[in-house]
């Protein structure tokens, strides 16, 4: 594992002015030595020309050590393949001009699982022919714990927190994040049912618990890449098309049963209250047969899904 070494180089403004002045001074020295070659002689003239050329070339090479870093950007510094440190603070600096400076972003990024990224293409002259593009995320098809095929996708928010690990531990940390997030999502979806009773975690009902578990699984896989997962949430969840119609019918049947159960519970309570109130106020005395008939009639009225049409008895009570 590569440990990140954070360094803060010296400010680059003084070195910028110094090396620019060195280049100008070298040019002036060259002009003056050539113009006064007759007075200086061949030896001094050759020496002055050599000093001016070396001063100009050295100052020009040292200008390549200037480094400008924007906020939430970093540079990983290498000297002939050896890691020297990372500059993570924004500013204008000067470092050894022979350092290789690898740019890496510390900004918060997000992507949706199932999307593919096409890198930018350049021609022989270095001009960008096509820009970097990303396709829309496509839901992944996976079986849940009960074996039902479902379609699922998630949005992952992440950022780089260790530049050394992101640069050296994995080949391409962005592709590594995408692949490992997809694998963690598939693994998590196969451990839980799509829908279940209230006491069990399910993909559809337990949104917060599933999101926290997904974030933890992805973070565990990306630990070696120097990446922190800020948030992971399911963005799409549905039954696969081949069983969607059957599962919809099952859900509708379950909803109807639950609604009827609630209606029956309420109707029984209302009938019980009505009979108790009639007996308490001595409004009418009913034998067991008439009480059963009243209970039946009241339940029909209360539990029916359509308006009932009562038959009014205009004769005697019985």
Would you mind describing this structure in some detail?
The chain has 318 residues and is of the alpha+beta class. The protein has seven helices and 14 strands. The strands form five sheets. Strands 7, 12, 13 and 14 form a four-stranded antiparallel beta sheet that branches. It folds into three domains: 10-105, no CATH class; 110-239, Tetrahydropterin Synthase, Chain A, CATH 3.30.479; 245-303. The radius of gyration is 39 Å and the shape is rod-shaped. The termini are far apart.
List descriptors:
22% strand, 318 residues, Tetrahydropterin Synthase, Chain A, 3-stranded antiparallel β-sheet, 3 domains, alpha+beta, single chain
Please summarize what this structure is.
This protein is an alpha+beta fold and 318 residues long. The protein has helices at residues 13-35, 37-62, 163-168, 173-189, 207-221, 241-280, 288-303, and strands spanning 10-11, 66-69, 73-79, 82-87, 91-94, 100-105, 109-112, 117-118, 121-122, 128-130, 133-134, 140-143, 149-160, 227-239. The longest helix is centred in the C-terminal third of the chain and has 40 residues, at 241-280.
């Amino acid at each position: 594992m590569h440990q990140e070494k954070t360094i803060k180089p010296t400010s680059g403004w003084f070195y910028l002015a110094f090396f620019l002045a060195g280049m100008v001074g070298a040019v002036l020295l060259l002009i003056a030595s050539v113009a006064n070659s007759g007075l200086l002689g061949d030896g001094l003239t050759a020496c002055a020309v050599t000093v001016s050329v070396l001063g100009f070339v050295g100052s020009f090479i040292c200008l390549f050590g200037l480094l400008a870093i924007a906020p939430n950007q970093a540079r990983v510094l290498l000297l002939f393949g050896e890691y020297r440190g990372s500059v993570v603070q924004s500013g204008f600096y000067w470092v050894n001009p022979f350092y290789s400076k690898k740019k890496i972003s510390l900004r918060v990024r997000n992507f949706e699982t199932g999307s593919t990224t096409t890198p930018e293409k350049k021609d022989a002259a270095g001009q960008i022919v096509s820009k970097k593009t990303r396709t829309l995320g496509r839901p992944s098809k996976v079986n849940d714990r009960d074996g039902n095929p479902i379609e699922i996708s998630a949005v992952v928010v992440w950022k780089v927190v260790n530049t050394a690990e992101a640069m050296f531990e994995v080949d391409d940390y962005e592709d590594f994040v995408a692949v490992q997030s997809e694998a963690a999502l598939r693994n998590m979806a196969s451990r839980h049912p799509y829908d279940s009773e209230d006491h069990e975690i399910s993909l559809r009902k337990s949104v917060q618990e599933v999101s926290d578990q997904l974030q933890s699984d992805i973070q565990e896989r990306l630990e070696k890449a120097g990446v922190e997962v800020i948030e992971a949430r399911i963005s799409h969840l549905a039954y696969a098309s081949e069983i969607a119609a059957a599962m919809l019918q099952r859900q509708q049947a379950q909803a109807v049963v639950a609604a009827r159960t609630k209606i029956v519970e309420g109707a029984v309570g209302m009938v019980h209250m009505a009979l108790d109130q009639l007996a308490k106020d001595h409004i009418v005395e009913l034998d067991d047969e008439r009480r059963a008939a009243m209970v039946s009639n009241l339940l029909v009225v209360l539990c029916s899904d359509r308006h009932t049409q009562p038959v009014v008895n205009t004769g005697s009570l019985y």
